[in-house]
Request: fold
Amino acid sequence: MFDDSYLASAQQNATIGRFLSGTRVAYFSMEIALHPKMHTYSGGLGVLAGDTARSAADLELPMVFVTLISRQGYLNQILDDSGWQHSEDDPWPVEEFGCPLRAKVAVPINGRQVWVQPWLHVLRSPIGHDVPVLLLDTDLPENDPRDRDITNQLYGGDSRYRLRQEIVLGIGGLRLLSALGFSDIQVYHLNEGHAALLALDLLRRYPRPADQVAELDLKYDVGRVRDMCIFTTHTPVEAGHDVFDYGLVGELLHDYIELDQLRLLGGQDQLNMTRLALTLSGFVNGVAQRHARTTRAMFPGFRIRALTNGVHSMTWAHPAFANLYNEHYPYWGLEPEALVQADQLPDEKIWQAHATARKDLIKLVAETSGVTLDPDRPIIGYARRMTSYKRPELLFTDLERLRDINRRYPFQIVLAGKAHHRDDEGKRHIQNILGHMKNLAPDIPVAFIPNYEATVASVLVPGVDVWLNTPVPPLEASGTSGMKAALNGVLNLSVMDGWWCEACLEGVTGWAIGEDPGEGPAQASAEDLYQKLEQAVLPMYHEDRAAWIAMMKQAISKIAPVFNTQRMMRRYASEAYMCTRYSEEHESE
Ligand SMILES: *Cc1c(COP(=O)(O)O)cnc(C)c1O
Reply:
């Protein structure tokens, strides 16, 4: 459950000293979901970072986490009468969750010194130890008013704002670790390309020895940096990478580094943060097998490994399932592998836990959207960032067809999701969905829960019967919400992409929509989705409850033991943090 169990006291939040020696790994992320009231995340990337931190604490890994304080959060979603999304700032009470530390460092931005101060938030595992999280803040009286808002809004503003944030995160974060006295850090883990400037700041510390052959014509000792940097990429599309014009880079960073040197590292035409991080990291990984293959094709010549994402089991199990697991497998939190035996749990226990999770969702839906769900119909759930490549409207392609299916096998739908501030297409999808809802009522109850975030996810995902996912392959790098679903016995109905390629056993752990396109361009269609609903999913729910519960148990026992952050962090610890030696060779497939 997403609750207060990982919160430390104010006093613990004030003292950094005990972490300074012995901490070996620094994990940098633009966003991190530590607690629902800390609005320092926007979606999947931040939830992954938060689950990573919780697992690091459970497993007693010697890590420190670095992120921006994002005082105004990401965005609060307001839907007007026409269904158009407007966004408000989403501030959070920083004083309740952290303490400012006395250290400050300056970073050069646009010819000015910008001071950066960290706040300390201590994440305390109830079964492990404490890990420190540093939240970087530029809202300081000594800063020029133009620089005070750099750490205000997550993913806000234009590319100039973004680059200033990335300078603070990468360069400011690295320098703060030194200023605070973290003396034993050996490895820097870049969660996505946003912190790539960290590796550049490291590079500046190591001029190439005179007798060393220049790699890429560099004046620096790039091997030294690669021995320290690990990069996890999350973006399978070129357009999704952070890129900056060198004009802007020169304007903001002046003579911080020679641009001809930077071009050798980050791309000739524009500074591509993914390329920069790839060039400067000794261990690089994608977040699912499919995603690693896609990344290899996009960036030939780099060795890209695959290390599939997970979710933090204790956080994402509904309390009813957590109680059931506690009763049967007392160690499941630390070792979710124990859930491999969940296929032996009694059917009634599974169904009871599910009924409790469902009741919580039906209540939340009534409170937040005014829609009354029918306790007897299966609930299809869909919630994620509203953006075109995730095809949030695929289910609504043919409303007559949906009504027709519903006459034979009644069902209902719950949706949620925010669009990014500047994604008008995403906002249009939300508006259209709200229109489809009106059209389908009252035959098919459909609810849209506003303002999707972690607390909503923790009720929505376990409370549905079927978790739907319809991205355009290969654009879903991994996806993690389906892992949360399976942990709670919710069956995935998903296009073959991201993590699902590794977890789907058709008719056993869930269902695929359409064929696996392999590396090809084929896309599952609305017709594929309707056929699967009509011929497999809904008939089983209505006509063979025992078979349905058998599948719930298969989903839990085959997915939860693998797709969790305890396994993921054990792999990062043993494969990445212990061994960052660079290798040019391609990974054999
Ligand atoms: C888990 C989670 C996500 C990630 O969902 P995807 O399946 O990767 O789209 C996004 N937002 C919230 C609030 C989550 O809890």
